Amino acid sequence: MKKFPEHFLWGAATSAPQSEGHGSLNGKSPSTWDKWYEINPEKFQKNQGPEHTSNMYENYIEDAKRMNDIHMNSFRTSIAWTRLLPDGKTINPEAVTFYRNYFHELHSNGVKPIINLFHFDMPWWLMEKGGWESRESVDAFAFYAETCFELFGDLVEYWTTFNEPMVHVECGYLYGYHYPAIHDLKKAVQVAFHTIMAHTMAVKAFKAGKYSGKIGIILNVSPCYPKSHSTEDLRAAELADLLNTKSFLDPAVLGIFPQKLIECLADNQLLPKVEVQDLHLIQMNPVDFIGMNYYQPRRVQAPATVNHPAVSPADFYEHYDWPDKKINPYRGWEIYPEALYDVAMMIKDQYNNIPWFVSENGMGVADEERFMDQTGMIQDDYRIEFMIEHLQQLHKGIEAGSNCFGYHTWTFVDCWSWLNGYNNRYGFYRLDLENDQRTLKKSGIWFKELIDRNGLL
Ligand code: BG6
Protein backbone atom coordinates (compact mmCIF):
# COMPACT_ATOMS: atom_id res chain seq x y z
CA MET A 1 0.00 0.00 0.00
CA LYS A 2 1.18 3.55 -0.75
CA LYS A 3 0.81 5.28 2.61
CA PHE A 4 0.52 9.06 2.95
CA PRO A 5 2.12 11.07 5.79
CA GLU A 6 0.50 11.08 9.22
CA HIS A 7 -2.15 13.80 9.70
CA PHE A 8 -2.44 14.20 5.93
CA LEU A 9 -5.26 16.61 5.06
CA TRP A 10 -7.91 14.92 2.95
CA GLY A 11 -10.76 17.03 1.75
CA ALA A 12 -12.35 19.17 -0.91
CA ALA A 13 -12.60 22.81 -1.88
CA THR A 14 -15.22 25.31 -2.93
CA SER A 15 -15.67 29.05 -2.64
CA ALA A 16 -18.27 31.34 -1.07
CA PRO A 17 -19.63 32.73 -4.36
CA GLN A 18 -19.93 29.23 -5.84
CA SER A 19 -21.64 27.57 -2.90
CA GLU A 20 -23.39 29.96 -0.51
CA GLY A 21 -26.17 31.58 -2.51
CA HIS A 22 -28.08 34.39 -0.77
CA GLY A 23 -26.23 36.82 -3.01
CA SER A 24 -28.45 39.79 -2.17
CA LEU A 25 -29.72 38.66 1.22
CA ASN A 26 -28.63 38.88 4.85
CA GLY A 27 -26.81 42.15 4.38
CA LYS A 28 -24.55 41.11 1.48
CA SER A 29 -23.70 43.73 -1.14
CA PRO A 30 -23.16 42.80 -4.81
CA SER A 31 -19.90 41.51 -6.21
CA THR A 32 -18.91 41.90 -9.86
CA TRP A 33 -20.57 38.51 -10.48
CA ASP A 34 -23.93 39.59 -9.06
CA LYS A 35 -23.85 42.82 -11.08
CA TRP A 36 -22.61 41.24 -14.30
CA TYR A 37 -25.41 38.73 -14.16
CA GLU A 38 -27.91 41.54 -13.64
CA ILE A 39 -26.55 43.38 -16.69
CA ASN A 40 -25.68 40.44 -19.02
CA PRO A 41 -27.49 37.24 -17.97
CA GLU A 42 -27.07 35.80 -21.47
CA LYS A 43 -23.31 35.52 -20.90
CA PHE A 44 -23.95 32.81 -18.31
CA GLN A 45 -24.42 29.14 -19.22
CA LYS A 46 -28.18 28.46 -19.44
CA ASN A 47 -28.72 31.85 -17.81
CA GLN A 48 -27.62 30.35 -14.49
CA GLY A 49 -26.24 33.17 -12.37
CA PRO A 50 -24.60 33.30 -8.96
CA GLU A 51 -27.89 32.62 -7.15
CA HIS A 52 -27.85 29.08 -8.58
CA THR A 53 -25.69 27.56 -5.87
CA SER A 54 -26.09 24.59 -3.57
CA ASN A 55 -27.27 27.10 -0.96
CA MET A 56 -24.74 26.25 1.72
CA TYR A 57 -25.90 29.37 3.51
CA GLU A 58 -28.88 27.31 4.65
CA ASN A 59 -27.43 23.83 4.34
CA TYR A 60 -24.06 24.09 6.04
CA ILE A 61 -25.06 22.07 9.11
CA GLU A 62 -26.14 19.06 7.05
CA ASP A 63 -23.21 19.55 4.68
CA ALA A 64 -20.70 19.46 7.54
CA LYS A 65 -22.28 16.14 8.57
CA ARG A 66 -21.96 14.90 5.00
CA MET A 67 -18.25 15.74 5.07
CA ASN A 68 -17.96 13.73 8.24
CA ASP A 69 -19.91 10.87 6.60
CA ILE A 70 -17.14 10.47 4.05
CA HIS A 71 -14.45 11.08 6.71
CA MET A 72 -13.06 14.28 5.22
CA ASN A 73 -10.79 15.93 7.79
CA SER A 74 -10.54 19.33 6.07
CA PHE A 75 -12.50 21.61 3.75
CA ARG A 76 -11.66 24.84 1.96
CA THR A 77 -14.11 27.60 1.31
CA SER A 78 -13.82 31.36 1.20
CA ILE A 79 -15.38 34.27 3.03
CA ALA A 80 -17.41 36.60 0.83
CA TRP A 81 -15.84 40.04 1.25
CA THR A 82 -19.18 41.56 0.19
CA ARG A 83 -21.05 39.68 2.91
CA LEU A 84 -18.66 40.53 5.74
CA LEU A 85 -18.00 44.16 4.80
CA PRO A 86 -20.84 45.24 2.50
CA ASP A 87 -19.47 48.78 2.10
CA GLY A 88 -15.83 47.89 2.73
CA LYS A 89 -15.82 49.34 6.26
CA THR A 90 -18.85 48.31 8.28
CA ILE A 91 -18.98 44.79 9.69
CA ASN A 92 -22.21 42.92 8.91
CA PRO A 93 -23.18 41.11 12.15
CA GLU A 94 -25.24 38.50 10.30
CA ALA A 95 -22.15 37.52 8.33
CA VAL A 96 -20.11 37.17 11.50
CA THR A 97 -22.75 34.88 13.03
CA PHE A 98 -23.01 32.87 9.82
CA TYR A 99 -19.29 32.27 9.36
CA ARG A 100 -18.64 31.57 13.05
CA ASN A 101 -21.45 29.02 13.13
CA TYR A 102 -20.31 27.52 9.84
CA PHE A 103 -16.68 27.11 11.00
CA HIS A 104 -17.81 25.77 14.39
CA GLU A 105 -19.97 23.20 12.66
CA LEU A 106 -17.02 22.05 10.56
CA HIS A 107 -14.89 21.63 13.70
CA SER A 108 -17.65 19.71 15.47
CA ASN A 109 -17.58 17.27 12.58
CA GLY A 110 -13.83 16.77 12.68
CA VAL A 111 -13.29 18.97 9.61
CA LYS A 112 -10.53 21.59 9.67
CA PRO A 113 -11.60 24.77 7.84
CA ILE A 114 -9.03 26.18 5.41
CA ILE A 115 -10.23 29.69 4.75
CA ASN A 116 -9.49 31.69 1.66
CA LEU A 117 -10.15 35.42 1.39
CA PHE A 118 -10.62 36.13 -2.31
CA HIS A 119 -12.01 33.80 -4.94
CA PHE A 120 -12.67 36.08 -7.95
CA ASP A 121 -15.44 38.02 -6.11
CA MET A 122 -14.49 41.69 -6.30
CA PRO A 123 -16.94 43.93 -4.42
CA TRP A 124 -18.96 46.10 -6.78
CA TRP A 125 -18.38 49.24 -4.71
CA LEU A 126 -14.62 48.77 -5.18
CA MET A 127 -14.96 47.85 -8.85
CA GLU A 128 -16.63 51.21 -9.38
CA LYS A 129 -13.45 52.82 -8.09
CA GLY A 130 -11.29 50.85 -10.53
CA GLY A 131 -11.12 47.42 -8.90
CA TRP A 132 -7.67 45.83 -8.99
CA GLU A 133 -6.49 48.52 -11.41
CA SER A 134 -6.63 50.97 -8.53
CA ARG A 135 -4.03 51.06 -5.76
CA GLU A 136 -6.93 51.65 -3.34
CA SER A 137 -7.77 47.95 -3.68
CA VAL A 138 -4.54 47.04 -1.86
CA ASP A 139 -5.47 48.88 1.35
CA ALA A 140 -9.11 47.82 1.09
CA PHE A 141 -8.08 44.17 0.88
CA ALA A 142 -5.60 44.47 3.74
CA PHE A 143 -8.35 45.94 5.94
CA TYR A 144 -10.72 43.12 4.98
CA ALA A 145 -8.04 40.49 5.65
CA GLU A 146 -7.23 41.89 9.08
CA THR A 147 -10.93 42.02 9.94
CA CYS A 148 -11.20 38.31 9.08
CA PHE A 149 -8.16 37.39 11.20
CA GLU A 150 -9.63 39.32 14.16
CA LEU A 151 -13.12 37.86 13.87
CA PHE A 152 -12.35 34.25 13.01
CA GLY A 153 -8.71 33.72 13.97
CA ASP A 154 -9.64 31.46 16.87
CA LEU A 155 -11.43 29.08 14.49
CA VAL A 156 -9.01 28.96 11.56
CA GLU A 157 -5.55 27.43 11.45
CA TYR A 158 -4.89 27.69 7.70
CA TRP A 159 -5.58 31.00 5.96
CA THR A 160 -5.01 31.74 2.30
CA THR A 161 -5.18 35.18 0.74
CA PHE A 162 -6.11 34.47 -2.89
CA ASN A 163 -7.32 31.60 -5.00
CA GLU A 164 -5.65 31.48 -8.43
CA PRO A 165 -4.83 35.20 -8.66
CA MET A 166 -3.58 34.72 -12.21
CA VAL A 167 -7.08 33.67 -13.23
CA HIS A 168 -8.77 36.91 -12.25
CA VAL A 169 -5.94 38.77 -14.00
CA GLU A 170 -6.09 36.88 -17.28
CA CYS A 171 -9.86 36.29 -17.37
CA GLY A 172 -10.69 39.89 -16.46
CA TYR A 173 -7.97 41.76 -18.36
CA LEU A 174 -6.76 39.52 -21.21
CA TYR A 175 -9.36 37.01 -22.35
CA GLY A 176 -12.74 38.57 -21.57
CA TYR A 177 -14.19 35.79 -19.37
CA HIS A 178 -14.58 37.72 -16.10
CA TYR A 179 -15.73 41.29 -15.47
CA PRO A 180 -14.53 43.87 -16.63
CA ALA A 181 -13.70 41.64 -19.61
CA ILE A 182 -11.16 43.90 -21.26
CA HIS A 183 -8.07 43.00 -23.30
CA ASP A 184 -5.12 45.04 -22.15
CA LEU A 185 -1.76 43.50 -21.35
CA LYS A 186 -0.37 46.60 -19.64
CA LYS A 187 -3.39 46.83 -17.33
CA ALA A 188 -3.20 43.08 -16.67
CA VAL A 189 0.37 43.47 -15.38
CA GLN A 190 -0.65 46.35 -13.11
CA VAL A 191 -3.64 44.36 -11.80
CA ALA A 192 -1.33 41.40 -11.10
CA PHE A 193 1.07 43.65 -9.21
CA HIS A 194 -1.72 45.18 -7.10
CA THR A 195 -2.92 41.67 -6.31
CA ILE A 196 0.56 40.69 -5.15
CA MET A 197 0.70 43.81 -2.98
CA ALA A 198 -2.75 43.08 -1.54
CA HIS A 199 -1.57 39.57 -0.73
CA THR A 200 1.64 40.94 0.81
CA MET A 201 -0.17 43.46 3.01
CA ALA A 202 -2.52 40.72 4.24
CA VAL A 203 0.46 38.50 5.14
CA LYS A 204 2.08 41.48 6.88
CA ALA A 205 -1.09 42.12 8.93
CA PHE A 206 -1.28 38.44 9.83
CA LYS A 207 2.30 38.36 11.06
CA ALA A 208 2.05 41.70 12.88
CA GLY A 209 -1.13 40.52 14.65
CA LYS A 210 0.65 37.37 15.87
CA TYR A 211 -2.43 35.29 15.10
CA SER A 212 -2.03 31.62 15.68
CA GLY A 213 -2.06 29.49 12.56
CA LYS A 214 -0.43 29.85 9.19
CA ILE A 215 -0.88 31.96 6.11
CA GLY A 216 -0.46 31.01 2.48
CA ILE A 217 -1.76 31.51 -1.05
CA ILE A 218 -3.38 29.21 -3.59
CA LEU A 219 -1.99 29.24 -7.11
CA ASN A 220 -3.05 27.49 -10.28
CA VAL A 221 -0.11 25.62 -11.64
CA SER A 222 0.10 24.25 -15.15
CA PRO A 223 3.62 22.97 -15.75
CA CYS A 224 4.77 24.15 -19.19
CA TYR A 225 6.10 21.57 -21.61
CA PRO A 226 7.71 22.74 -24.88
CA LYS A 227 6.80 21.23 -28.23
CA SER A 228 10.46 20.56 -29.01
CA HIS A 229 13.92 21.20 -27.66
CA SER A 230 14.55 24.00 -30.12
CA THR A 231 15.83 27.20 -28.52
CA GLU A 232 12.62 28.99 -29.53
CA ASP A 233 10.24 26.43 -28.05
CA LEU A 234 12.28 26.18 -24.85
CA ARG A 235 12.20 29.96 -24.55
CA ALA A 236 8.42 29.96 -25.10
CA ALA A 237 7.98 27.40 -22.30
CA GLU A 238 10.22 29.41 -20.01
CA LEU A 239 8.23 32.60 -20.67
CA ALA A 240 4.90 30.84 -20.17
CA ASP A 241 6.16 29.56 -16.83
CA LEU A 242 7.54 32.94 -15.77
CA LEU A 243 4.39 34.83 -16.70
CA ASN A 244 1.81 32.35 -15.42
CA THR A 245 3.41 30.64 -12.44
CA LYS A 246 6.62 32.20 -11.22
CA SER A 247 5.15 35.73 -11.37
CA PHE A 248 3.15 34.88 -8.22
CA LEU A 249 5.04 31.92 -6.80
CA ASP A 250 8.43 33.63 -6.54
CA PRO A 251 7.32 36.79 -4.70
CA ALA A 252 4.98 34.80 -2.43
CA VAL A 253 7.52 32.14 -1.43
CA LEU A 254 10.97 33.62 -2.13
CA GLY A 255 10.11 37.30 -1.66
CA ILE A 256 11.53 38.37 -5.04
CA PHE A 257 10.50 38.50 -8.70
CA PRO A 258 12.54 36.42 -11.14
CA GLN A 259 15.13 38.58 -12.87
CA LYS A 260 14.18 37.14 -16.28
CA LEU A 261 10.55 38.17 -15.75
CA ILE A 262 11.60 41.72 -14.90
CA GLU A 263 13.79 41.84 -18.02
CA CYS A 264 10.98 40.53 -20.21
CA LEU A 265 8.47 43.10 -18.86
CA ALA A 266 11.00 45.93 -19.16
CA ASP A 267 11.87 44.94 -22.73
CA ASN A 268 8.17 45.14 -23.63
CA GLN A 269 7.48 48.38 -21.72
CA LEU A 270 5.19 46.51 -19.38
CA LEU A 271 6.71 47.21 -15.97
CA PRO A 272 3.98 48.17 -13.48
CA LYS A 273 3.91 51.26 -11.25
CA VAL A 274 5.61 50.33 -7.99
CA GLU A 275 5.80 52.35 -4.76
CA VAL A 276 9.09 52.84 -2.89
CA GLN A 277 8.60 50.27 -0.14
CA ASP A 278 6.79 47.63 -2.23
CA LEU A 279 9.68 45.32 -3.10
CA HIS A 280 10.99 45.45 0.46
CA LEU A 281 7.53 44.56 1.81
CA ILE A 282 7.32 41.60 -0.56
CA GLN A 283 10.74 40.43 0.55
CA MET A 284 9.81 40.67 4.25
CA ASN A 285 6.54 38.74 3.98
CA PRO A 286 6.92 35.26 2.52
CA VAL A 287 4.11 32.76 3.08
CA ASP A 288 4.17 29.78 5.47
CA PHE A 289 2.75 27.33 2.95
CA ILE A 290 1.24 27.16 -0.52
CA GLY A 291 -1.72 25.48 -2.17
CA MET A 292 -1.41 24.26 -5.73
CA ASN A 293 -4.45 23.79 -7.94
CA TYR A 294 -3.59 21.35 -10.68
CA TYR A 295 -5.88 20.24 -13.51
CA GLN A 296 -3.85 20.03 -16.70
CA PRO A 297 -0.45 21.00 -18.13
CA ARG A 298 0.34 23.75 -20.61
CA ARG A 299 1.82 22.61 -23.95
CA VAL A 300 3.56 25.47 -25.71
CA GLN A 301 5.54 26.40 -28.77
CA ALA A 302 7.23 29.54 -30.04
CA PRO A 303 4.79 32.05 -31.55
CA ALA A 304 4.68 32.22 -35.35
CA THR A 305 4.68 36.03 -35.41
CA VAL A 306 5.55 38.43 -32.65
CA ASN A 307 4.62 42.03 -31.82
CA HIS A 308 7.29 44.02 -30.09
CA PRO A 309 6.44 45.48 -27.66
CA ALA A 310 4.07 42.62 -26.88
CA VAL A 311 0.33 43.23 -26.84
CA SER A 312 -0.85 39.82 -25.66
CA PRO A 313 0.53 36.58 -24.18
CA ALA A 314 0.48 35.16 -27.73
CA ASP A 315 3.56 37.30 -28.37
CA PHE A 316 5.47 35.18 -25.86
CA TYR A 317 4.15 31.68 -26.43
CA GLU A 318 1.44 29.76 -28.27
CA HIS A 319 -0.47 26.70 -27.25
CA TYR A 320 -0.15 23.56 -29.28
CA ASP A 321 -2.01 20.26 -29.22
CA TRP A 322 0.21 17.42 -28.06
CA PRO A 323 -0.76 14.55 -30.38
CA ASP A 324 -0.28 11.91 -27.65
CA LYS A 325 -2.46 13.58 -25.12
CA LYS A 326 -5.07 11.74 -23.13
CA ILE A 327 -8.28 13.72 -22.90
CA ASN A 328 -11.09 13.95 -20.41
CA PRO A 329 -13.84 13.36 -22.98
CA TYR A 330 -16.45 14.98 -20.73
CA ARG A 331 -14.68 18.34 -20.30
CA GLY A 332 -12.05 18.44 -23.05
CA TRP A 333 -9.09 19.03 -20.74
CA GLU A 334 -5.87 17.03 -21.02
CA ILE A 335 -5.24 14.38 -18.35
CA TYR A 336 -1.56 14.26 -17.43
CA PRO A 337 -1.00 13.07 -13.83
CA GLU A 338 2.81 13.02 -14.26
CA ALA A 339 2.78 16.81 -13.99
CA LEU A 340 1.84 16.50 -10.33
CA TYR A 341 5.14 14.75 -9.66
CA ASP A 342 6.90 17.57 -11.54
CA VAL A 343 5.11 20.13 -9.36
CA ALA A 344 6.18 18.27 -6.22
CA MET A 345 9.80 18.26 -7.38
CA MET A 346 9.69 21.91 -8.45
CA ILE A 347 8.55 22.94 -4.96
CA LYS A 348 11.17 20.75 -3.32
CA ASP A 349 14.07 21.86 -5.50
CA GLN A 350 13.25 25.48 -6.34
CA TYR A 351 11.11 26.68 -3.44
CA ASN A 352 13.01 25.54 -0.33
CA ASN A 353 10.72 22.54 0.01
CA ILE A 354 8.08 24.78 1.54
CA PRO A 355 5.07 22.90 2.99
CA TRP A 356 2.35 22.68 0.35
CA PHE A 357 -0.84 20.86 -0.46
CA VAL A 358 -2.83 20.03 -3.56
CA SER A 359 -5.60 22.56 -3.08
CA GLU A 360 -7.67 21.53 -6.14
CA ASN A 361 -7.59 18.57 -8.46
CA GLY A 362 -10.56 16.98 -10.10
CA MET A 363 -12.45 15.88 -13.15
CA GLY A 364 -15.30 17.94 -14.56
CA VAL A 365 -18.00 15.99 -16.35
CA ALA A 366 -20.83 17.32 -18.50
CA ASP A 367 -24.29 15.67 -18.42
CA GLU A 368 -23.24 13.44 -15.58
CA GLU A 369 -26.74 12.08 -15.01
CA ARG A 370 -26.06 9.69 -17.91
CA PHE A 371 -23.90 7.75 -15.42
CA MET A 372 -26.67 7.43 -12.84
CA ASP A 373 -27.67 3.87 -11.89
CA GLN A 374 -31.14 2.67 -10.92
CA THR A 375 -30.63 3.60 -7.28
CA GLY A 376 -29.87 7.20 -8.27
CA MET A 377 -26.13 6.96 -7.60
CA ILE A 378 -23.66 8.39 -10.15
CA GLN A 379 -21.19 5.62 -11.00
CA ASP A 380 -18.21 7.89 -11.57
CA ASP A 381 -15.46 5.30 -12.03
CA TYR A 382 -13.71 7.70 -14.45
CA ARG A 383 -13.28 10.18 -11.56
CA ILE A 384 -11.91 7.51 -9.22
CA GLU A 385 -9.40 6.48 -11.88
CA PHE A 386 -8.43 10.14 -12.41
CA MET A 387 -7.76 10.64 -8.71
CA ILE A 388 -5.88 7.37 -8.27
CA GLU A 389 -3.55 8.29 -11.14
CA HIS A 390 -2.89 11.72 -9.68
CA LEU A 391 -2.40 10.41 -6.15
CA GLN A 392 0.13 7.86 -7.42
CA GLN A 393 2.22 10.69 -8.83
CA LEU A 394 1.79 12.76 -5.69
CA HIS A 395 2.87 9.81 -3.57
CA LYS A 396 5.94 9.38 -5.73
CA GLY A 397 6.80 13.05 -5.11
CA ILE A 398 6.33 12.68 -1.36
CA GLU A 399 8.54 9.58 -1.36
CA ALA A 400 11.16 11.67 -3.13
CA GLY A 401 11.05 14.17 -0.27
CA SER A 402 8.49 16.78 -1.30
CA ASN A 403 6.80 18.35 1.72
CA CYS A 404 3.16 17.85 0.78
CA PHE A 405 0.64 17.81 3.62
CA GLY A 406 -2.71 17.33 1.91
CA TYR A 407 -4.89 16.62 -1.09
CA HIS A 408 -8.13 18.47 -1.81
CA THR A 409 -10.38 17.74 -4.70
CA TRP A 410 -12.62 20.15 -6.51
CA THR A 411 -15.30 19.74 -5.14
CA PHE A 412 -17.53 18.48 -2.36
CA VAL A 413 -21.08 19.09 -3.67
CA ASP A 414 -21.41 19.91 -7.39
CA CYS A 415 -21.12 23.66 -7.53
CA TRP A 416 -21.97 26.62 -9.71
CA SER A 417 -19.05 27.73 -11.84
CA TRP A 418 -18.90 31.30 -13.12
CA LEU A 419 -19.87 31.45 -16.79
CA ASN A 420 -20.03 27.63 -17.01
CA GLY A 421 -22.93 27.23 -14.59
CA TYR A 422 -23.39 23.52 -13.94
CA ASN A 423 -21.89 22.35 -17.21
CA ASN A 424 -19.00 20.63 -15.48
CA ARG A 425 -19.87 18.54 -12.44
CA TYR A 426 -17.00 17.75 -10.07
CA GLY A 427 -18.52 16.83 -6.69
CA PHE A 428 -18.49 13.80 -4.43
CA TYR A 429 -22.19 14.61 -4.03
CA ARG A 430 -24.50 15.20 -6.95
CA LEU A 431 -26.62 18.33 -6.63
CA ASP A 432 -30.23 18.23 -7.82
CA LEU A 433 -30.87 21.74 -9.06
CA GLU A 434 -34.63 21.42 -8.54
CA ASN A 435 -34.53 20.94 -4.78
CA ASP A 436 -30.90 21.34 -3.59
CA GLN A 437 -30.85 17.64 -2.70
CA ARG A 438 -27.40 16.02 -2.42
CA THR A 439 -26.77 12.39 -3.39
CA LEU A 440 -23.48 10.65 -2.75
CA LYS A 441 -21.59 9.46 -5.84
CA LYS A 442 -19.49 6.31 -6.01
CA SER A 443 -16.32 8.44 -5.80
CA GLY A 444 -17.45 9.67 -2.35
CA ILE A 445 -17.46 6.11 -1.04
CA TRP A 446 -14.06 5.48 -2.62
CA PHE A 447 -12.68 8.68 -1.04
CA LYS A 448 -13.87 7.62 2.41
CA GLU A 449 -12.09 4.27 2.09
CA LEU A 450 -8.95 6.01 0.89
CA ILE A 451 -9.02 8.34 3.91
CA ASP A 452 -9.59 5.43 6.31
CA ARG A 453 -6.50 3.69 4.93
CA ASN A 454 -4.56 6.96 4.54
CA GLY A 455 -3.15 5.17 1.57
CA LEU A 456 -3.61 3.95 -1.97
CA LEU A 457 -4.00 0.25 -2.59
C1 BG6 B 1 -10.72 26.26 -10.57
C2 BG6 B 1 -11.39 27.39 -9.83
O1 BG6 B 1 -9.70 26.74 -11.34
O2 BG6 B 1 -11.50 25.54 -11.48
C3 BG6 B 1 -12.85 27.13 -9.53
O3 BG6 B 1 -10.71 27.70 -8.63
C4 BG6 B 1 -13.54 26.51 -10.75
O4 BG6 B 1 -13.46 28.32 -9.10
C5 BG6 B 1 -12.83 25.21 -11.09
O5 BG6 B 1 -14.91 26.30 -10.56
C6 BG6 B 1 -13.49 24.39 -12.20
O6 BG6 B 1 -13.63 25.12 -13.37
P1 BG6 B 1 -14.77 24.81 -14.44
O7 BG6 B 1 -14.67 25.91 -15.42
O8 BG6 B 1 -14.50 23.47 -15.05
O9 BG6 B 1 -16.06 24.80 -13.70
TrEMBL record:
Keyword Hydrolase tagged: yes
Domain of life per record: Bacteria
One annotated Gene Ontology cellular component of this protein: cytosol
UniProt key word Hydrolase: yes
Gene3D superfamilies (alphabetical): Glycosidases
Single GO MF descriptor: beta-glucosidase activity
InterPro entries in the cross-refs: GH, Glyco_hydro_1
Signal peptide: none
Keywords associated with the record: Glycosidase, Hydrolase
One annotated GO biological process: carbohydrate catabolic process
PANTHER family: 6-PHOSPHO-BETA-GLUCOSIDASE GMUD, GLYCOSYL HYDROLASE
Family that this chain belongs to: Belongs to the glycosyl hydrolase 1 family.
The protein's name in its UniProt record: 6-phospho-beta-glucosidase
Organism: Enterococcus silesiacus
Taxonomic lineage: Bacteria, Bacillati, Bacillota, Bacilli, Lactobacillales
